[in-house]
Amino acid sequence: MARIRQADVDEVKARVNIADVIGERVALKPAGVGSMKGLCPFHDERSPSFNVRPQVGYYHCFGCGESGDVYSFLRALDHVSFTEAVERMAARVGYTLNYEDGGAAPETTGRSRLYAANAAAAEYFRAQLMTPEAEIGRRFLGDRGFDAGAAAHFGVGYAPKGWSNLFDHLTAQKFSRDELEKAGLVSTNQRGGVYDRFRGRLVWPIRDVTGQVIGFGARKLYDDDQGPKYLNTPETMIYKKSQVLYGLDLAKRDISRSHRVVVVEGYTDVMACHLAGVTTAIASCGTAFGSDHITVLRRVMGDDSSSGEVVFTFDPDAAGQKAALRAFADEKRFAAQTYVAVAPGGLDPCDLRLQRGDGAVRALMENKNPMFEFVIDQRLADFDLASVEGRAGALRAAAPIVADIRDPSLRPGYVRVLARRLGLDMPEVQAAVERAARGADRAEQRENARVAEPAPIAVSVTMASLPNTRDVALERGAMMAFLQYGHRIEPDVFLRALQLPFGHPALEAVRSSLASTDLSQPGWAVAAVEAVREPFRSLAAELLTAEFPARTEEGAVASANDLARGLLVRQLEREKDDLLRGIQRVPADSEEGRRLRLRLRELDADRQRLIAS
Q: Angle CA(499)–CA(502)–CA(505) in degrees, nearest 5?
């Protein structure tokens, strides 16, 4: 493949706001001057340790150590090549790339072609929805309260009957058979022939969090269709059903702002919720809502406190109850409070909107019940509470649920709820909950002991591991200032301070790398960090992205200049101490004595200028 010209790589990176790119996947909040913070997308965490510094185009996680620029972010999270990452960002900012063999080159990389094929398929399906054959699809939507505007908003389309309509259309657009197979748009029969995967079906495009089409969900319309009611794109290089949430591209902004999400069970439920004003609704695609979905949602929500809300909607039938208990098993992974909303009469959000209007859908979400109460009721329903044996069994079944409540302020209230439902005394229920809690703790300890492995020897140096001394604090602060605000420090002061060696070896490694970097080139701070030798590179990334201790940009610039001067003053004071010791060893009226005293006056004058400036 042709190599992208380096000047173009740098120019695209300079034009892209890394916070916007990362912010499509992670809810970022201001974290000090010029810095943003969110839950790390590379590991699971309860409180945010992932820092992004838009000004220098760099991120670093203080928890797992992942760091890099916008290209490394895309490569790590989306598993794309470097070339694909550059091409994607170039398309984002409308920049035409040039390749070293001359001229502009089309996007021909594997993942890019799969995205392009899915996008072209989505356009084709949308156009087909307007054809006479698609009348059955339009009627299906209309019967569920969705007009043409709603279909257009969600990109709903129609896959025509026939074995190769889509295949013929896309191959005419220069997509190869191999690309269409890898995109999950066509299948191969036993004789090696190819045919469209989706035929005679209503089709919903499934997009990733950035809005790119990665697959489809299709609902059968004809009685002679022997396939499943819903058919989804198979697992592909870009479509992983355990990580995909339908509607997240439309809902992410409101989810991030409100820290609230509504989890429903189908495409039409998502449509109904959004059209009714519940714009934070999403759904899993062809699989049960699971732990990977939770990880994705927590990042988008900024799920780092109990102030958020996750509302699940379930059918009241056996399948819905099973889904609720499955969701409850993963409930602890949310920091937010979890709730369950069950519509009267067992209606799903789509049918509820159709029969009772938009207001009923909004009311359903407001009249939610805590997940714990819902699950407790499900457990109690299995027992005859009119008998002593039934109440005892119900207590044994429900006590672990109450014991599992994370918030200690909520647990006593649920003990009272359970006691009231069972008709038992509070002390008896409280004792059962405490026994369940102790049993859970012992089980967790045994599991931790079983899976525990010898801890790896820590080799990377971090800011937290630096000694807490005056000199190290000055050097640490100065390196943060150099990397984050070097361009705002007085040039003469910056260059002089940067040449002074540091006492701490790790900080000296960072300083040395920065001192040898060409400061006239764009992105010099990132280049310096990436050039730091191990095991000190993680420290350099932390210094570049850590929250700078200042309230305003002006305050940060003033502090950065003060820290640089502080290094110079420290060096002058050390030299002065050496001179004073030297003066004591030579006659006062000697030539050497006069030279030392002259130099001493120069140092004092230099020090006063630095302090006064």
A: 130
CA–CA gap between residue 258 and residue 301 (Å, rounded): 8
Distances (CA, A) of 354 to 145, 262, 320, 357, 537: 6, 19, 21, 6, 58
Whether 317 and 265 have beta carbons less than 8 Å apart is answered as no
CA–CA dist 129, 135 (Å, integer) = 8
- Alpha-carbon distances, residue 297 vs 245, 261, 341, 521, 526 (angstroms): 9, 8, 19, 39, 30
Closest to 76 in 3D by CA, of 26, 119, 36: 26
**Residue 508, both tokens:** 């000296």
Q: Compute the distance between CA of residue 127 and CA of residue 130 in angstroms, rounded to an integer.
A: 6
Helical residues (DSSP H) of 404-469, grouped into ranges: 411-422, 426-451
- The reported pLDDT for the residue numbered 442 is 60
Which residues on neighbouring strands pair with residue 81, listed in sequence order? none
Residue 356's pLDDT is what?
95
* 455 pLDDT above the threshold of 50: no
- pLDDT at residue 187 greater than cutoff 70: yes
Q: Return d(Cα 557, Cα 280) in angstroms, integer.
A: 40
CB 251 within 8 Å of CB 279: yes
Distance of CA 347 to the CA centre of its chain: 33
Of the pLDDT bands very low, low, confident and very high (cuts 50, 70, 90), residue 446 is low
Q: Which of 14-23, 182-191, 521-530, 565-574 has the lowest mean pLDDT?
A: 565-574
Round to whole Å and give the CA distance between 161 and 201.
Answer: 8
Q: Which of 101, 76, 218 has its CA nearest to residue 156?
A: 218
Identify the helix (H) or strand (E) that includes residue 476: helix 470-485
pTM value?
0.74
pLDDT digit string (tens) for 549-588? 888 999 999 999 989 988 888 887 777 766 666 666 677 6
Could you give the count of Cα atoms lying within 13 Å of 358 in the half-sphere of its Cβ?
8
pLDDT at res. 453: 46
Tell me the DSSP string of 403-418. Answer: HT-S-TTTHHHHHHHH
